[in-house]
Each structure stands twice: as structure tokens, then as C-alpha cells.
Amino acid sequence: MAGFTSRDVARLAGVSQSTVSYVMSGRRPISADTRKRVQAAIDQLTYQPNAGARALASQRTQVVGLVVPFGPAGDTTALLPFIETIASCARDNDYDVLLVTADEGTAALTRLAGRSLCDAIVLMNIAAADTRLPVAAASRIPVILIGIPDDPLGLPCVDLDYPEAARLSVAEAAAAGHDRVVVLGWSAEEVARGANYVGRFERAAVEAAAAAGLEHLAVSPVEVSREGARAAVAEALRIGGPRPALLVPASSAVPWVVQALTERGVVPGRDVTVVALCTDAAAMATVPPVTNVSTEPRDVSARAMQTLFRLLERDRETPPGGVELVAPRLTRRETTLTPP
Amino acid sequence: MAGFTSRDVARLAGVSQSTVSYVMSGRRPISADTRKRVQAAIDQLTYQPNAGARALASQRTQVVGLVVPFGPAGDTTALLPFIETIASCARDNDYDVLLVTADEGTAALTRLAGRSLCDAIVLMNIAAADTRLPVAAASRIPVILIGIPDDPLGLPCVDLDYPEAARLSVAEAAAAGHDRVVVLGWSAEEVARGANYVGRFERAAVEAAAAAGLEHLAVSPVEVSREGARAAVAEALRIGGPRPALLVPASSAVPWVVQALTERGVVPGRDVTVVALCTDAAAMATVPPVTNVSTEPRDVSARAMQTLFRLLERDRETPPGGVELVAPRLTRRETTLTPP
DNA sequence: TTGAAAGCGCTACCAA
DNA sequence: TTGGTAGCGCTTTCAA
């Protein structure tokens, strides 16, 4: 089928090979007649330019490298909307996505950049003190972080506004008339990895609770499993007083927490308020649907790609980094306590 | 940091550029001394070969294209283990993975092959009469299917052995002492798309039930949602008699079916048997853990990649297609009816 | 055992 | 408005 080169097209159209190139790139004015003949030849041969040759000559691969946290770590489930959105944004901008697993660590970065496999890199699941950052910052190509480290080293970052998520959660608890909020905290893995958002959420939750005159309590870490959720719920109910509001920031623990409550005969929305931090889809999948602050993986990804392409267009010498925060939204569903 | 070429390495090592190439590829005997000097130069410059140039010269990209069913269709959740395994197998064989979304349809295939973006393609989520197959079969590069169409057109396929999955499920029902099995069937989307495994499972279920002397009933399609599951469960209990065994082949519906049963006070493992077709992870995530026939996404992916690399090594002229089936396993958990 | 050199198929510069 | 041509950085043949 394929196998034709721009020389074949040129020959068939009766023009020079460089003219074919210019017709494709539009980087030079071409007479209507010539363009027509060349286009006809392209169509006839179903010509497609060789990506390797193009990359070699132009120093651009039209590929974005995506480093995803497969392997040991990772909210392996919440990952898909990120990947999907990134792939889709890439295609919209005429880029492809090269998928690399994070277990390669630093080597992935040096390989992607060193071999000119891509024009830019998206790095996910950033730890507070991520060892890949120095390498990323020294990279020849732009790197954008999804997640915020303690020190971004000048790299652009995009993430959910976790402090705002905490504030929204606490505000919902206050509005529902609670006087205590219990944060059913993060997984041990997230804490161990040093995910920065753990602290960002926590501090904001404490502050917001104080400002609203609520007592703030925490159960952490929470093991993400049935038993872990049962234990956490037991503890939360023990320390939370008669009518606690439960904030559940670890999205993968949400279904289990709701289960554990229900098992004990504690009905969310009647006996306690539950506010989860998870995607809207996940919130609607629990029984009953849980009031949630959305994590907006699609928005976060889209913003990251948008910023990345700005960096890529305004080739070089753009103001480097900066932190972009995506606003979460709270949606009240069936687990917010309502006055009878 | 980077930006060095093999010429730089050659100069530093005092050899010709082609010698550097041969040291890297090992395609020519090199004296120990020369190799040592070249390797030292490579290390010193942290030289990495340019992927585009290499692809252009060698006609090999060391990239596998992966077409994933994002977008409208898709068990969007069950996708991750496939992607992860494929990426991991690829790296083990010194390949990278280019991720393409299926919404490009046929264009994705022609682009990947036509532009020489990759050396082979993995196509997921195959419909019974998939319109991409003719294009795939005519492709210049190997294409492997995860899933089995009605006519593979000579393309290699790998998939779970769904007939065997049906047989295992029915055998479990029989062993638990039931005299009726009700299949809570597939989603309307899967049926509409014409997923081949729907029919493969169904036919085997009917046959196995007949052979075991069980009555076979079906509720299909099942809407994958809380309400859909409730309706399906109501219908299943209506037609299923006093002690039905429920087979749930649509993995995404499993948690909802279990929920719906529990809501009605019907306890899986005490009142009915539930056998799900899903990953072991998903089976253990329900309450109670559900007896399941595993879908083995990692095994299926690994087998596909193994076959793909065989095709890629034994360059050209290997016997083309063939269908590989991966055996499912049944794990009895807490939803198999046990005699009191 | 090694070097020189001819491409691979494209982009982009220099002329016309 | 177009053509000729010099690379891009590698692999691989042909000579030595």
C-alpha cells in the first residue's frame, strides 16, 4: 500500500521534491495550479511523510512523552481520564503520545529527551521531593508537571486546588450544621511517597475548620481496603461525637468508607455527612451517591496540555514555570445531612 | 546536556563514526581495546542515538502502536491493566508504546503505518465485523488483535477463552446444586457494537447448561447502572425460581448487581449463587467478595505482545494469523451457595 | 579489525 | 513562484 516518498509525488506531479514539501507545510506561497497537481499526486499515491525523516530534518517529532505512574504506586483507577484527555488534546494539536511507565524513573526522562523521542514531556504523580525533578529541570525539552512538588525548580505545574477543595468540604460540613469534621485521611502509600497535596489539603482543612468554628479531627492513614475502611470508620465514629461530618480525600477509599458506614447501620445523609474528594463519576457510582468535591482530571490534564503547547509554539524563551491551580466544584448529592 | 552525535563520540574515541555504530549495535566484531575507548567516550558524553535518524536509516522505529478504545465505547476501567502490561512488555523488549485513541478509527491505522510511526500495531476492542480489519490486514506492518472478530482476515488474535469461561461458570452453578442458571447479560453497548465474545459466551453457556441438565435463562441486555442492575435483578429473581444461580458476564455491572441483590435482602452465598466474569481485583472489591471467572487482562496482553515480538523478530514470512485463547480461572469466594 | 562513503526521506536555505 | 541542494544523524555496504 504505502512506501511512496515525496520524490514519487514530485515525479508524478512534475515538480521538484522541495515543492512537495512546501505544499505540505504551507511554508511558502504556491500557485493554485501547482498545489492542485501536487495534491492530486499525493491523493493518488496516498502519500504520507515519513515521521523519522521529518523528525531528523526538522528537529521536531510531533510527539509528547507521557510518564504515567504504573507499577507499584498509583491510584491506578483514577489514571484513565488523565491519559485519555492527554491523548485527545495531543491529537487535537497534531501530536502523538508516547507512553512510558514511571518505573523507569529518571531513565525515562533521559531516554525520551536524549534520543529525541519527543518534543515535550508530561510528568504525572509528582512527589513532594521528586528525584526526577533535577533531571527534568535540566532537560533539553519542556517538561510539565501534573502535581506540585515542594520546589518545582522552575518547571510549570498544574494541579487541583487542594486547599480550595478542603475549604469547600469544610464549608459543606458547616452548612449541614455539624460542629465536628473528621478527615478520613490518605493512604499510607500517598503519605509515604510524600504527595504534596496531602499537606496542602490538611493545612487548609485545619484552617477552614478553625475559621468556621468547627472542631477538626483526623484519622490517618487509611488503608484502602474493606478492613481498612472499617477500622477508619470505627475510629471516626468513636472520636467524632454524635453527628460528625466525614471528609474522605482519598478517592479510592470512598466506596469502602460508604460501605463500612452502611454496614454499621449508619446512614450517610441521615446520621452523618460524607464529603468525598473524587471524580463526579466515582461519586455517582456509590450507593447512595456521595456529595463530592470533584478532582477534575480532565480539566487538569487539558490545562497542562494547553500550557505545554504554548511552550512548544512560542518556541523557547517563554517565561518558564508557574503553578496553575484548577478549581474544584462541590456537588451536593445524597450524603449531606439535611434537617428532617 | 545532550546534543552529542555519534560523530562526537567517534572523534573523542579516535575512531570512525561507523565504528561507533558497530560498537552500539554489536553487528560487527570489535577489538576489545577499541570497544573500551568507544564506550568510554559514550559514557563521558552520555551519548544517546537519535531515534529519528536511526529509524530513517534502519527502517525500524522500535515503537509499537497501541490503539485503545477511549471515547464513546469501552469498559473504560478494565482498560488499565491492558495498557500497563503492554507498555511493560514493550519496554522489556526495548520498544516504546505510541498511544492512539480509537476514535480516529481507520485513520489511526493508516497514519501509524503510512508515516512509519511504529513497527507494529496492537488493536483492542475488536467488533465482530470490525471495519478496521480490512485496513489492518492490508497494512505494511504486523497488526495483532486483542479480541476475536468473526473473520480475522488472517490477522493474529488473542483473547480470553469465553466459551471456557461460560463452562466454568455453569459448572460452578451445577456444583452448588442449582437447577437454573440465569445469565445477567451484556450491556446494550457491547451488544450493539457486536462484540464477538457475547455470542461465544452465550452459546457455550447454553450448551453447558444443557449438558449439565440445568435450565438456562437470560436477562439481556443489562444497563450498566444502579437502576439497570435493579431491573435486571428483579427480572432474574422473577424468572429464576427459588434458588437461581446468577451469571454476570458484564464485569462493570457486577458491583451493581451485588448491590441490587443486597438491597432486596437477597444474600449472595446464602440465597443465590453469583458468578461474575471479571478480574480478580474487581471480584475482591465487592461486598461480599464474589466468586469469579477471571478475565486475565495481563495474561491476554502479555500473550499478544509475545506473539507480536515473534512476528517482529522472525522478520517477514512467518505463518501469519491464528487465534490464541487464554484460559480463565474460577475462584470460589463468598457468593457461591454452600449447603448449610 | 577498521574506515570511507552512500544513502534513508525529509526540511529549509540559496538561487533563479 | 519554483528548483537545486546541503544537510539532519544514523545504518550498512564496499574496500582496505
UniProtKB/TrEMBL annotation, chains A, B:
Residues 4-58 form the HTH lacI-type domain. Keywords: DNA-binding, Transcription, Transcription regulation. Pfam families: LacI (PF00356), Peripla_BP_3 (PF13377). The keyword Nucleotide-binding does not apply. It comes from the Bacteria. SUPFAM superfamilies: lambda repressor-like DNA-binding domains, Periplasmic binding protein-like I. One of its GO terms (molecular function) is transcription cis-regulatory region binding. Gene3D superfamilies: 3.40.50.2300, lambda repressor-like DNA-binding domains (1.10.260.40). SMART domains: HTH_LACI. This is DNA-binding LacI/PurR family transcriptional regulator. The lineage of its organism: Bacteria, Bacillati, Actinomycetota, Actinomycetes, Geodermatophilales.
